[in-house]
From TrEMBL:
Stated name of the protein: AIR synthase family protein
Family indicated by similarity: Belongs to the HypE family.
Residue span(s) of domain PurM-like C-terminal: 151-306
Residue ranges of every copy of the PurM-like N-terminal domain listed in the record: 33-138
Length: 334
């Protein structure tokens, strides 16, 4: 099998098909594209998500926190606590473990979240440290948002720019290789993009203005996230490729490594689906919060997911958005 998370078809066949529904208090169950699960407790929902950090060798404590908080935010919930599991290779120094936990705890606390437990182990089963995080959030059931909630006619928005997380990881882990591609200022700018990977603010805004669906763009990039949201919702879409923002430095890095920035891991970008009547309220709220955004397309009843070139009067199909393959990052970080 290929490196990276399972393809959607394999995930359905090997994992989701083996999970059976036996309880009536489960609000969100595993399915393609859903960022979280949720369990009812009276009028409140406990929202949960879990993710490992496997594609980066640096800042893994920070990444582990943000990736999980982003998933919780996409459900419209607030994260309260995190559980961290560290699997460290033989020979790991105590200072390395301390640095990872310090970074993770500092990041979590800045976001108003506590680390409430976990597990740390030295094992010959890994050749570098793996951090896996589980986040626990809460929201009222009536405010719970699903990835599968997009409706035909909704506008689709992307916040910030495509490939942000991937750009930061590559610029940090491959800095010496990029010395002839980027100048010192560009390299530093790319590395500092790691500070822009949170979408917690977008999640709060989306919940407040009444979005129908949100999805954090992680592995598979912005196109993978759009595909998964539409697939989960049983809908299609028309996406104007020229409306998707890509930072010039990301374009340089992707051109050098011959990878597609729209399929590069993109934590920091939230995909948001909202009806036309409330779209202006979403735009105003994002502007007030100083969050860049672009309206990139529309949700359709037709199940095909099309990339479009040209304006609304002269549209031309550029390509169809396919089920995401292994993330472009794995072509660079091996």
């Amino acid at each position: 099998m290929e490196v990276g998370k399972l393809k959607n078809e394999a995930l359905n066949d090997l994992v989701i098909s083996e999970i059976h529904m036996i309880r009536d208090d489960i609000l969100i169950r595993p399915s393609i594209g859903e960022d979280c699960s949720a369990i009812s407790f009276g009028d409140m929902a406990c929202v949960l998500t879990t993710d490992p950090i496997t594609g980066s060798g640096s800042q893994i404590g920070r990444l582990a926190v943000h990736v999980c908080l982003n998933d919780i935010a996409s459900s419209g919930a607030e994260t309260a606590g995190l559980l961290l599991t560290l699997l460290c290779p033989v020979g790991t120094e105590e200072s390395e473990i301390k640095d990872i936990l310090h970074e993770a705890n500092e990041t979590a606390n800045l976001m108003g979240v506590e680390i409430v437990g976990g597990h740390t182990e030295i094992t010959a089963a890994v050749n570098r440290t793996i951090v896996s995080a589980t986040a626990i959030g809460k929201t009222s059931i009536q405010n719970l948002i699903k990835t599968s909630g997009a409706k035909a006619g909704d506008y689709l928005y992307l916040t910030k720019q495509a490939g942000t997380e991937g750009t930061a990881i590559i610029a940090t882990d491959k800095a010496s290789e990029l010395a002839d591609v980027l100048n010192k200022h560009e390299l530093l700018t790319a590395q500092e993009m790691i500070s822009k990977i949170s979408v917690v603010a977008e999640g709060r805004i989306g919940s407040r203005v009444g979005v129908h669906a949100m999805h954090d763009a992680t592995e598979g990039g912005v196109l993978g996230a759009i595909y998964e949201m539409c697939e989960a919702s049983g809908k299609g879409c028309k996406i104007h490729i020229d409306k998707i923002e890509v930072h010039p430095i990301t374009e340089k890095i992707c051109e050098y490594y011959h990878i597609n920035p729209l399929k590069l891991i993109s934590s920091g970008t939230m995909v948001m689906s909202i009806d036309k009547e409330n779209a202006s309220a979403l735009e105003r709220a994002l502007l007030d919060a100083d969050i860049d955004y672009s309206r990139v397309g529309v949700v359709t009843d037709e199940m095909t997911k099309k990339l479009i070139m040209g304006d609304s009067s002269v549209e031309e199909i550029f390509d169809e958005i396919e089920s995401p393959e292994a993330d472009e990052l794995y072509k660079v970080i091996k």
